[in-house]
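Run log, item B.
One chain of 277 residues. Sequence copied directly from the ordering sheet:
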Amino acid sequence: MCVNMVFILKITHAIITDMQESEVFMKKNPGWIKFTVILIVINLFMVRQVLSQNNFNERGYDIPVLMYHSITEDDKKMFRVTKDGFYEQMKYLKDSGFSVLSMDEVYDHLKNNKPFKDKSIAITFDDGYKDNYHNAYPILKEFAMNATIFVVTDYLGGSAYLSVDEIKEMQLNNIDIESHTTNHAKLDKLTEIDRINTLKDSKDYIDEVLNKEVKYIAYPFGRCNKDVIADARLQGYKMAFTTKSGHATGRDDLNQLKRVLVSGYMNIDHFIKVVNK
């Protein structure tokens, strides 16, 4: 139903600015009293929603979540950053005053629409490569930085992957261990039962081994759809990451957040631009 905006404004102005005038007006228009009250409530609610949305658009309500994979001795490729390169990047973050948040802190801010302080950032690793322990972990400890490793649980203990003892040690030293499923399958291509099993089994395994509650997941290959998201929620995951490029923000569904890929081909100047974007 279309309502004459001039009439609406006249009612609102009368009520707010001049109660005597309002009383006279309402006596002349008794049928509009309830309508006016409802209208004002709706308008106030809409204003609140607009202001809330504007808050999301202000700088400070999103965060770059860096996505690494392998940290190698000297083999530089798309998903392989050298140890020296990683050290240079972490040193820049430390020297420049960046605050490296834990995944629980990221979730708290995004879930509750709390602004991040300036220069907030998060660090993640996908797959759970053994070099994360030998090459990345000592550097993260040196700079007292938080990080999250999304592990493929069936790979744990393999020659190229982290061992249970290694993830237990890291978990005690600011490295959060979360799920990357059991077998790194494309979740959107699995049957419902297989999808539920890989989501559930990986979470249950980490829960038991580390005596913790797994709350976060990175989708293998970043692939998800509405069924994947629904099943992840059903299994108790509170927040999930894709491989789509961009900052994580509360404007987006917390079950399909973006990240920033750090490639082995990225030099320090490019890295600096990315983290300050």
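Observations after the first pass:
- Residues 5-56 form one domain.
- The two ends are 45 Å apart (CA to CA).
Flagged for discussion on Thursday.
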